[in-house]
Amino acid sequence: MTDFKLAIHQDTLETQKRYHNRKIHIEKKMEEIPKQYEGDIRRYKNYCYSTAQVIGAEAMLDYLYISLTEQQVKKTTWERRLAAIRKYLSVIHKIDLKGQAGVTYELSGIRKMYQEDQYAHLTQVRGKSAINKKELMDMLHRLPIRAKAICLVNLVTANRPSEMVRLKVSDFDLNNKCVHVYLKKQKRWHTKRLTQEVIQAIDIYIREYHLKPDNYFVGRVYKDGHYESTAISEIGYYSFLQRWTGLTGYNFRKSQVVAMHAAGADLSTIAQQTGHQSLETLMQHYLTVSEGTIDKYL
After folding, report:
1. What is the pLDDT of residues 60-73, one digit of tens each?
2. What's this model's pTM, rounded to 2 decimal places?
3. Pair type for strands 172-173 and 178-183
């Protein structure tokens, strides 16, 4: 075999190896079960055990029917349970529900039951409340250095929890008053503006804790004051905010949207700061008429 043919042969082998490794990698990704499904999967398995049912489609339908008629869970919770169990049955038990007409028929029937008067209250969705921004800012300015900087960034950027926990110090461009945020939900990077008072709080936080560019902005601080650069979980971040303010990241997000709108910002301007792709979603879920506005006319 000539050197030329040998090179082509080796290249072909390398290519086939890449194809093989790619398929294995993608297959593993597709078979990953999201962590947020773990609780719903555990409850489904416990239900099967307590009712002596075999794990499968029939037990799933029974569990989802009971979830509505007896447990009376919210529609959003019911849909999450369905998604979790489907993934579990597909990955662990190799049960594909897509081609089962009977399953699809019954799921459609349960969904229709949510439209009945006796279950209508279970379809109501109540978002997090907006807080008066001035009052909120006054509260945040009284927080310790680290909590103050993190909360102010969360408020002004209207970041989601998934965006806050991924921020690194290097994502901030304080000279240009902005921060580059990875929008996990949309799988893209987006630049958001910062105010001068937020920049000052960030600068003090960075110097106080000796943060480096590759450090996580939120990270973790132990009781002895030691900072650890780590990507904490969204649940962990939720606990931080609850302890510091009694609020959630979505309270901050909605408060910023409402404050910008009240100040005269149009939807496109607000969406540019929040990272919303859909102006319709922004309008429907964030810019409902405030109670304060209604109160003025009562």
Report:
1. 999 999 999 999 99
2. 0.61
3. antiparallel
